[in-house]
């Protein structure tokens, strides 16, 4: 071969841009056939976007990397599907948008164990890092990460010294009025009302520790401690709602006021006291006040007060789990339960009123209540673990299970009943975000239902009246959640023109019938004990059946069973109104 021919061949090789190695083969120093044998074998996509002498990161190189990443993701996804024995999904299946992915992960993590608190999550407290004092205010001062106090603390920690704990300079005008002159009920009546409160209300929320409370009353602590005195008055006011004693309706109170108003009206909440921080008694008072107003008047007042109470609880860090090298004390457990009660009422009332929640769930870093009944707390007072005897159903199981269901409700209110601004964010890169979230909520509700303790499963023949009441309240709230998740997709009230792929109306009807069935059985067995959070659930169930009847009436087919169920719903609400006057407006709207 001559040198001329050799030069010609070299020139021809250099001038064959279509036969050069593709980007992947070029980096692997493989042959330049077209298409590449390696790419055919590994099902890669041949690209010629990278220059032969790229000296920087060009847009074509970035695009090449993205193509490679997409290919690898597709291969990994196909390998996972084959390994799990699932039929490969079509390539056109849409992927979840980023917002849907985040919400899905949040819903699926609800049942995970509670993570241990980190020192950065606790916040700046006062020098006293112990439990919340019953008597002395100001034992806790919470300030979060963004506060200037935490910034100063970080600087001081870097220096290696301790900051001085300066006492608060209280101004003379901040002092409150003299101690109130409480008018307590007679001792025998007070004992009866305390018992009614614990038998009918505390079994649902576990706010107070019965042995401690009754011992404090027997020791006349209410005559010496204003905090306990105010809490006692509210307990008596709530117990009066279940009492038939004529003394709960004295002639001195305004006509038409609910039972127990004479004691409720004396309560002084800490929100009016500028010179002190809240104590445990103050947090309990806000919980009790919310419960009384929720039963006797418009829920709007309860919603406002519980929001104030949660802000006060934040002031002392009650919404954050505390770092501790010892076991939790009874006072710390009661503080935790007081916050969870307010969190629960805030979510439930916000759902009933269609309003915003005061504090978002991701801002709360607090463990669930300890599932230990009051009578087994004696060991805890001796610095031992809270311990429920094995194979002994706990009364607190209802409260803990209700809180988990409340977490799902919290997510639903945030994302399914959001504003247009939130909806626009959720719809980013995912037009089917609503349908996908409904599937996740249904899955979360199914998992929650499977986690309900055995003694709280619905059983109309349950031998325990207390567990029957708890089970009925739990299941009615569960059916209400089913309705709430699918209600936006009922065709008659759906805002969009796109039909829902789910039989939402049928799902809501089934849940409504089940809710009314449970409420009616509980009412027949316990006619004087209205369902906790049952009014909104039963009322919503009645409205759903009415929608179904009105839609069926157009076609001339009105289900007789639904008409009877609506009448049973009205009967239940009418009976609730006797004990809880706040049921009246719901009853009038349904009738």
TrEMBL record:
Keywords: Metal-binding, Nucleus. SMART domains: Fungal_trans (SM00906), GAL4 (SM00066). It comes from the Eukaryota. Residues 16-57 form the Zn(2)-C6 fungal-type domain. Coiled coil: none annotated. Residues 302-375 form the Xylanolytic transcriptional activator regulatory domain. GO terms for biological process: DNA-templated transcription. The keyword Nucleus applies. This is Fungal-specific transcription factor domain-containing protein. It comes from Mycena rosella.
């Amino acid at each position: 071969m001559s040198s001329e021919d050799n030069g010609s061949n070299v020139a021809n090789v250099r001038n064959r841009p279509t036969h050069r190695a593709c980007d992947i083969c070029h980096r692997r120093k493989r042959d330049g056939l077209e298409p590449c044998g390696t790419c055919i074998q590994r099902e890669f996509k041949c690209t010629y976007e990278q220059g032969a002498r790229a000296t920087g990161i060009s847009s074509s190189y970035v695009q090449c990397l993205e193509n490679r990443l997409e290919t690898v993701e597709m291969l990994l996804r196909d390998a996972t599907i084959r390994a799990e024995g699932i039929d490969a999904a079509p390539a056109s299946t849409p992927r979840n948008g980023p917002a849907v992915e985040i919400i899905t992960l949040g819903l699926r993590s609800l049942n995970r164990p509670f993570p241990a608190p980190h020192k950065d999550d606790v916040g700046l407290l006062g020098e006293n890092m112990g439990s919340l004092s019953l008597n002395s205010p100001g034992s806790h001062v919470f300030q979060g990460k963004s506060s200037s106090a935490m910034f100063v603390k970080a600087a001081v920690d870097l220096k290696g010294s301790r900051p001085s704990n300066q006492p608060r300079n209280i101004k003379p005008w901040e002092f409150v009025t003299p101690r109130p002159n409480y008018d307590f009920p007679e001792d025998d009546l007070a004992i009866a009302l305390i018992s009614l409160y614990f038998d009918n209300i505390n079994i649902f929320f576990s706010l107070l520790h019965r042995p401690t409370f009754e011992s404090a009353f027997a020791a006349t602590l209410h005559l010496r401690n204003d905090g306990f005195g105010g809490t006692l008055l509210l307990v008596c006011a709530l117990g009066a709602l279940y009492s038939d004693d004529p003394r709960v309706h004295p002639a001195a109170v305004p006509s038409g006021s609910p039972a127990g108003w004479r004691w409720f009206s004396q309560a002084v909440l800490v929100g009016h006291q500028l010179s002190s921080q809240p104590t445990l008694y103050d947090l309990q008072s806000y919980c009790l006040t919310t419960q009384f107003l929720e039963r006797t008047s418009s829920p709007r007042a309860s919603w406002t007060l519980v929001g104030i109470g949660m802000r006060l609880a934040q002031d002392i860090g009650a919404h954050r789990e505390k770092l501790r090298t010892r076991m939790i004390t009874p006072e710390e457990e009661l503080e935790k339960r007081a916050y969870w009660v307010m969190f629960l009422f805030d979510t439930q009332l916000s759902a009933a009123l269609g309003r915003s929640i005061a504090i978002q769930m991701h801002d709360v870093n607090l463990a669930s209540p300890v599932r230990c009944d009051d009578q087994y707390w004696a060991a805890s007072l001796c610095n031992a673990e809270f311990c429920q005897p094995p194979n002994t159903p706990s009364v607190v199981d209802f409260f803990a299970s209700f809180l988990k269901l409340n977490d799902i409700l919290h997510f639903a209110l945030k994302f399914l009943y959001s504003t247009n601004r939130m909806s626009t964010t959720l719809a980013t890169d995912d037009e089917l975000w609503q349908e996908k979230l409904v599937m996740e909520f249904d899955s979360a509700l199914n998992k929650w239902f499977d986690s309900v303790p055995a003694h709280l499963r619905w059983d109309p023949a349950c031998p325990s009246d207390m567990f029957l009441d708890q089970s009925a309240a739990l299941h009615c709230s569960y059916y209400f959640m089913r309705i709430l998740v699918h209600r936006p997709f009922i065709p008659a009230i759906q805002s969009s023109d796109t039909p829902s792929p789910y039989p939402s109306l049928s799902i809501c009807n089934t849940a409504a019938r089940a809710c009314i069935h449970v409420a009616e059985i509980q009412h027949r067995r316990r006619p004087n004990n209205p369902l906790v959070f049952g009014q909104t659930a039963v009322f919503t169930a009645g409205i759903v059946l009415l929608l179904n009847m009105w839609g069926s009436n157009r076609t001339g087919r009105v289900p007789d069973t639904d008409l009877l169920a609506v009448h049973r719903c009205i009967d239940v609400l009418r009976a609730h109104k006797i004990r809880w006057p706040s049921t009246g407006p719901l009853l009038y709207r349904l009738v």
